[in-house]
Amino acid sequence: KNEVEQSPQNLTAQEGEFITINCSYSVGISALHWLQQHPGGGIVSLFMLSSGKKKHGRLIATINIQEKHSSLHITASHPRDSAVYICAVRNTDKLIFGTGTRLQVFP
Amino acid sequence: ETGVTQTPRHLVMGMTNKKSLKCEQHLGHNAMYWYKQSAKKPLELMFVYNFKEQTENNSVPSRFSPECPNSSHLFLHLHTLQPEDSALYLCASSQAETLVSYEQYFGPGTRLTVT
Label partner for A35 (CA 20 to 30 A): which of A16, A41, A90, B3? Predict the structure, then answer.
């Protein structure tokens, strides 16, 4: 079992839908990252958080340290949100990555 | 040029070839990383350089040889690779590789195919 599990693995949505991607982890962490990887391969860091909630535009990330769980929400989804979303946790000096959630948003 | 750049973006090489991947960061960071991303697998950390010193080598085969001549440049030298080494190789940088959580900035990756 991976130390970082994401669900779902694949997700399709209609434009405008509210989307939730989940991440659960089994190790102690100092921070959790949400990353976005577009089809070309480049990765962009969306959030780094260690408690509570962060918001950036239509994206919201939450973390519950006690439950070892984080969610990434996308409001009013758009086709340009189509990408792979990767959760990564920082354990001591290492980043441990999930396998990603592939999101496709259709017009 | 800003951010983290990688060249080439695509590379096809035979098993007997020698090639190098290049990464350059223009962010003033002191730590640089090589990652491997294979299909349907999580990102795998290969090497970490902190202030030009290699601080991590995650049991990577010797056919991958990193080089960090200064804090802005990182190379991955490849020789006698195997077809299973075909993957996306990503470079990243951060302020420093310490216990404090610094955000990593990724390059666009090099898509490597070994034939």
Answer: A16
Instruction: Give which of A51, A93, A101 to mutate to test B binding, by max B Cβ within 10 Å.
Output: A93
3-state secondary structure of A69: strand
- Residue B39's alpha-carbon distances to A45, A98, B36, B88, B101, in angstroms, are 20, 13, 10, 9, 27
pLDDT band at B99 (very low <50, low <70, confident <90, very high): very low
Contacts of B109 in chain A (CB under 8 A): 40-43
Q: What is the DSSP string of B86-110?
A: -EEEEEEEES--SSS-PPPEE---E
Distance from CA of A41 to the nearest CA of B (A): 6
A9-23 per-position pLDDT tens digit: 999 999 999 999 999
Q: Which of A43-52, A58-67, B93-102 has the lowest mean pLDDT?
A: B93-102
Question: Which residue from B88, B87, B91, B64 is spatially nearest to B76, judged by alpha carbons?
Answer: B64
Q: Which of residues 58-97 of A touch B (CB under 8 A)?
A: 86, 88, 90, 92-97
Residues on chain A touching B94 (C-beta within 8 angstroms): none
A74-78, B79-83, B102-106: the lowest-pLDDT one: B102-106
Q: How far is B58 from chain A (nearest CA, A)?
A: 11
Q: Which of A42, A45, A93 sits opposite B109 (nearest CB)?
A: A42
Chain position carrying tokens 């290969």: B46
The predicted structure's pLDDT at residue B97: 59
